[in-house]
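Bug #77: duplicate submission created two jobs. Keeping one. Sequence:
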Amino acid sequence: MISLLPLAALGEIIGYRRVYQAGLILFVAASLGCALSRSIDALALARIAQGFGAAGIMSVNGALVRFTYPQNRLGQGIGINAMVVSISAAVGPTVASGILAVAPWPWLFGVNVPIGLAAIAVAAFALPPTPTTDRPFDWKSAL
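Kept job's structure:
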């Protein structure tokens, strides 16, 4: 949570698309790390990395909606985004219990890898280019 605002600011500087893609790549790599972890310490470190990846995605998601939809359909885009997030939050625990009913716990994280790889491929051509600014990143405030 604490990295959402600094990553959103970084998105304004280097582009929302780049922050989203980097967050997605980190999230997928960390999910693989979680699935392959063999100790609680390794799992905790991979979960931290996964959280930073998710923050990269979430911090710029709304801005990307603004650049994806035309101005006259922005409300629809925000509504679709909110619906997907809400349905995912509601269905997630049921899917997780289904996975645990048929597979060991590492699959809770392993399932993210093929889905994430597909999302990375789609993001490479589907995300719109976004503007950047010349202002420097405020490291002091971010820390």
